[in-house]
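Re: the request from the purification team.
They wanted to know what the chain is likely to look like in 3D before they choose a buffer screen. I agreed to run a prediction and write the result into the notebook, where they can find it.
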Amino acid sequence: MSGEGIHQLKRCKRLPASASSKFTDTSIDDLPDYLLVEVLCRLPDNKICLQCTSVCRRWCSLISDPYFIGRFLWLQRDLGSPIIRTLINHNAEEFPTKDVFQRLRSFLRLKEDPFVLATWNDLVLCCASKDDQHDYYICNPYTMQLLTLPPIPACHEFVPVGFICEPYYNYEEEDGDHQKEQKININGDYRCKVVRVIPSKITCLDITIQVFSSETGEWRESVVSSPRDLSSYIFDRNISVANNGMIYWSTHDGDLIGLGPFVNNTYSTSSDHYQCRLIEFDSIVKENFTFEFLGVYQGFLRMCDYDFDNRWLLVLELTEEEHEQLVVNGPGKCGLEHVKRYSLPPKMISGDPDGHVELLTFDPNNGDILYLRINGEIVKCNIRTGKWSKMVGTNMLTDLYFFQLVLPWWPTPVPRLPDY
């Protein structure tokens, strides 16, 4: 302890007896609710806040209240607290950080490891196994919450699956007396959708999908109308990403197909009116590139490919505005103007005698960091600076398809289902 701290401590010990008794007779429980909220919402992170809910009923009630959550979020925003992101693969292995699912498996006494199908922020959509997808559940591995979805007929094929939710909270501006006032809305009844595409039922202009909705608590089959013949398109079943209210899959031809379970479709003839979008690449792009990776970074859709002959990394990135321009009149055409080129370090590439470079994913916290597999080893490379290094201890990963997993300032509860 510093000399100043010791001096302050000694001064405290010399307080008069009457003053000392006042302090000892007062506790934090004597604070009114609004002051206690101001104290608790200044705890350093949501994990400690949630642990404090077990102190007593009053604390649990205050911390669970939307007002407290809103105050906590405002303070985190004012402090500029970072939002932590990591990656998780199909076999629930986190990369490059620790495996949070290990705790979940033990806590929930799962009989077998889950198979991860998709993520949304800190929520994860899982099923019992890859080949028999009918036992679905949504979980938050950080809060140990789990929601089991109602059963559907067993599907003995690996079908394309997507997962999307409305925001649990959002920021809004309102007109005040003299200036704009900001507020946070907590949406405890946010909507959630799980979408299964049935490839055997894709016809010329229709896509048959099965949708679970948290609003109804049921699975329903719907037919989505497309502005273009999609019967020849084959969905990539390994990865789907959700962005700006849409779920996207890449196709074996390298194009993008998006379904919007929250958005009206002007082409649809079904009662659900789910929106369908198609982003095609022009002939020059298709002749030269085959995009291997599909992901989202800071709200942008990202795809990339590696041109081994010229040692170019090709990155296609679409902002929300560019995306809207592509699809505003139906199917969008995407050309070379959306593709950026980066030169990768020759020494890093020369480590593979066969010339095979496998693109894995971008770092969710730094869009300049790319993970690749070269000669069986995972490599981390900054595509702007050219600095690279081999990742130690990653050879044990059993799957190399990654989803982004976010730990927001306040955890997302699993969706609520209607009470019957």
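For the purification team: The mean pLDDT is 79.
Please add any questions underneath this entry.
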